[in-house]
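Hi all, posting the design record for the shared folder.

TITLE: backbone redesign
STEP: 1 of 1
STRUCTURE INPUT:
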């Protein structure tokens, strides 16, 4: 199957990619390795040509699963991974964007993937202790050495993007973006458009909330949504009433809520590539179909208004927000 394509700097990728965090951690019990492999291969069979992983996902397990199950099909996809957030000893998580740490993380990733080249390599988070110029400089060296093809940034605001881009062209900036989460609209989307940088939207179905995957806050023990204020208690109860309106619009349009969310993200600019993640092949097929379904502009416009100023609770808990540079929305600034 062939999907529409979009550009991330010099890279041509399918309009919808696959986020590969879910196959090993973060939400609920991970699938078996065999089922993760089936999901990865089904994504490629459906025409997905962009897989996104990171050193920290499963403490390297996501990269290992990609190597085991689909690296023999590497000519069919563009691979992105990330550094800075890592667990060098396999246990303790760290955030370190020093050149030495970046180089070590990249070398471990290449070893896990059993390759000598990663197409797109991101700084996963800003490191307040290391100037962005030094971190990008380390990745520039990796480009020149042939270890990576292009440089990306994740959860960084407009100022850092411009500083990074001055050191070496940035191919892609990644942040959370969905009809519910609009932070990139403050400054990041325009900055990317101005500089010719692609934008990669993670959690485009709002960590399952726009995919009928959240109905209460009885998450499994290690589910990261336990720590996110908008996914718990009274905040979640209120937010689900707003989501019900979104779901009704999707039903009227003849698509699923996830497809409406993804179609909306795609409609916000041709430099935007959403990367939904899932553990379920049926959900994967549903998501990928959003790249080719037609939804009327008035429906997309209606979807855009539902969440304006209506969602309660911060996107991250305070400890996680401290690692993020993406701009806050005006109402979030007031709450802070």
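Okay, here is what came back for every position:
SEQUENCE:
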């Amino acid at each position: 199957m062939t999907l529409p394509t979009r550009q991330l700097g010099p890279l041509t990728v399918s309009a919808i990619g696959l986020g590969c965090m879910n196959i090993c951690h973060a939400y609920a019990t991970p699938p078996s390795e065999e089922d993760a492999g089936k999901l990865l291969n089904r994504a490629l069979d459906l025409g997905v040509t962009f897989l996104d992983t990171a050193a920290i996902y499963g403490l390297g397990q996501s990269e290992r699963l990609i190597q085991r199950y689909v690296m023999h099909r590497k000519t069919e996809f563009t691979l992105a991974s990330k550094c800075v957030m890592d667990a060098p000893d396999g246990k303790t998580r760290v955030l370190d964007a020093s050149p030495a740490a970046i180089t070590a993380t990249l070398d471990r990733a290449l070893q896990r993937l059993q390759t000598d080249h990663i197409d797109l390599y991101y700084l996963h988070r800003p490191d307040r202790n290391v100037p962005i110029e030094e971190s990008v400089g380390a990745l520039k060296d990796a480009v020149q050495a042939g270890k990576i093809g292009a440089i990306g940034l994740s959860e960084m605001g407009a100022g850092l993007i411009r500083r990074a881009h001055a050191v070496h062209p940035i191919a892609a900036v990644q942040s959370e973006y969905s009809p519910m989460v609009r932070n990139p609209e403050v400054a990041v989307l325009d900055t990317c458009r101005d500089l010719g940088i692609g934008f990669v939207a993670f959690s485009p179905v709002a960590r399952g909330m726009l995919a009928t995957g959240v109905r209460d806050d009885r998450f499994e023990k290690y589910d990261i949504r336990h720590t996110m204020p908008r996914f718990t208690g009274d905040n979640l109860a209120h937010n689900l009433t707003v989501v019900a309106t979104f779901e009704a619009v999707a039903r009227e349009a003849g698509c699923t809520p996830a497809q409406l969310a993804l179609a909306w993200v795609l409609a916000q600019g041709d430099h935007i590539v959403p990367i939904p993640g899932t553990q379920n092949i049926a959900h994967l097929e549903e998501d990928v179909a959003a790249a080719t379904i037609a939804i009327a502009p008035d429906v997309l416009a209606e979807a855009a208004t539902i969440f304006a100023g209506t969602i309660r609770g911060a996107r991250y808990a305070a400890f996680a927000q401290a690692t993020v540079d993406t701009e806050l929305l005006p109402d979030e600034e007031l709450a802070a």
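COMMENT: The chain is about 40% helix and 15% strand.
Let me know if anyone wants the other runs.
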